[in-house]
DNA sequence: ATGTTTTCTTAAACTTTCTTAAGGGTTTTT
DNA sequence: AAAAACCCTTAAGAAAGTTTAAGAAAACAT
């Protein structure tokens, strides 16, 4: 056994913001080329923020004010029904973006809640700055269009999976696509994402071990 | 009773292509303003095509070559499983766009089939022309980004509905959102879209009539 | 360490949805 | 006008998924 004093690594590491910018720019460079001046301007529009476990990034009913890029940690977006039961719509980890897009673009009350499953560092850009960014550096709009295209494709695949795959296959597909997430998120959350009860997922897992 | 000779209206009406262009421009004007010259250039990149009932717009395995705007008629996009059963992913009627986006942008074999449920007039633009269009008239890229945002939002809502609503509610939600489609498409197709068997949908409808 | 809370598992009864099979009513084709 | 193909309905039994409730295991807090 290790003594805590030897092994303990604090969760909350205070990376300098500049290194978060580096991460965002590394992501960006996969889609478009920015000149040094453009890159400076680009990151200047983002504000850093850290959320602690269980802290809300967005609450249903509020208006979603920014698009959020995750530098480290894990967020979840979920929908709460009047009955009280809730359904996870998205997990978002490093290099993912999240927002309630309907609320953000139409400036209507959000239907999604977004909160942190771990301590999470993000960079956020406000809608008005996003509009400005698209105007001043049009290729950034291309990047968002491409990101959105990919997100759309992924959602379409998820719809197909939900329509035609039984629970066990949906779970296996989840493991393939989001294996890393499955190891840092409680099982009940995964069940919610997959649209089944935690008890049933447990049963499914048992059956799969043969 | 009417004699056919008095009442018969041919399905296939040959609208002039220019009126189809008008329809596309009317759609476009909801999103962006184009100068007359830009509008001319814009529509010049689209080719008209008519599909007859049951004719394929895209077959799984082929590469999707264009984005398709529907001027009149109705298309469906569906996914066929190895087992032979199939699932409708999208109905597309007047003023809608359709494509297998993954196939179109990544130039990979399509997983979706798209075919006509009625005689359908479309305007199609090839990927290369879409790229050119975005380069020459950047605000068109904005339109596609906004369209995609809305499509993404709709898909997200559909995922939520599939996760949490029982069959009867999903059917009612479908009627609300796509009432016009429900009157021109056979019931079994709607069942496929909703992820249930036609027999069960029939039962659901009977139960709802009380 | 110890007690507390959260998470995971198990099992039985129940509800929802599917499968199969049959019958009747439309259209469409011949 | 008959035959064929298509579409919708009904019903009984089977399978898939949920609910409830209880106990075990792991993580967290003091």
Provide key terms for this protein:
210 residues; homodimer; 8 strands; 4-stranded antiparallel sheet; alpha+beta; DNA-binding; 9 helices
Structure write-up:
Two copies of one chain form a homodimer. Chain A contains nine helices and eight strands. With 210 residues, chain A is α+β, with helices and mostly antiparallel strands. Chain A has a four-stranded antiparallel β-sheet with strand order 1-8-3-6. In chain A, strands 2-7-4-5 form a four-stranded antiparallel β-sheet. Chain A starts with a helix and ends with a helix. Chain A has helices at residues 4-7, 17-29, 36-44, 101-106, 127-136, 138-164, 167-182, 187-194, 198-208, and strands at 47-51, 56-58, 66-72, 74-80, 86-93, 97-98, 113-116, 120-126. Chain A is globular, with a radius of gyration of 19 Å. In chain A, helix 5 crosses helix 6, helix 7 crosses helix 8 and helix 8 (187-194) crosses helix 9 (198-208). Chain A binds chain B through residues 79, 81, 85, 87, 89, 101-102, 105, 134, 138, 141-142, 144-146, 148-149, 151-153, 155-156, 158-160, 162-164, 195, and chain B through 79, 81, 85, 87, 89, 101-102, 105, 134, 138, 141-142, 144-146, 148-149, 151-153, 155-156, 158-160, 162-164, 195. Chain A binds a DNA duplex (30 and 30 nucleotides) through helix 9.
């Amino acid at each position: 056994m290790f003594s805590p004093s030897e092994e303990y690594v604090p969760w909350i590491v205070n990376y300098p913001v500049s290194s978060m910018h580096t991460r965002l720019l590394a992501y960006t460079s996969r889609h478009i080329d920015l000149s040094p001046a453009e890159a400076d301007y680009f990151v200047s529009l983002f504000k850093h923020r850290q959320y602690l476990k269980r802290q809300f990034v967005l609450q249903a009913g509020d208006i979603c004010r920014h698009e959020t890029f995750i530098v480290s940690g894990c967020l979840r977006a979920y929908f709460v029904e009047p009955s009280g039961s809730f359904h996870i719509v998205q997990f978002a980890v490093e290099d993912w973006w999240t927002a309630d897009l309907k609320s953000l673009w139409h400036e209507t009350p959000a239907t999604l809640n977004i909160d942190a499953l771990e301590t999470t560092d993000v960079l956020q850009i406000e809608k008005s700055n996003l509009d400005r960014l698209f105007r001043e550096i049009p290729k950034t709009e291309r990047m968002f269009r491409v990101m959105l295209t990919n997100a759309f494709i992924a959602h379409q695949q998820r719809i197909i999976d939900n329509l035609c795959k039984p629970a066990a296959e949906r779970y296996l597909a989840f493991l393939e696509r989001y294996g890393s997430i499955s190891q840092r998120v409680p099982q009940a959350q995964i069940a919610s994402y997959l649209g089944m009860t935690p008890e049933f997922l447990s049963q499914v897992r048992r059956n799969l071990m043969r």
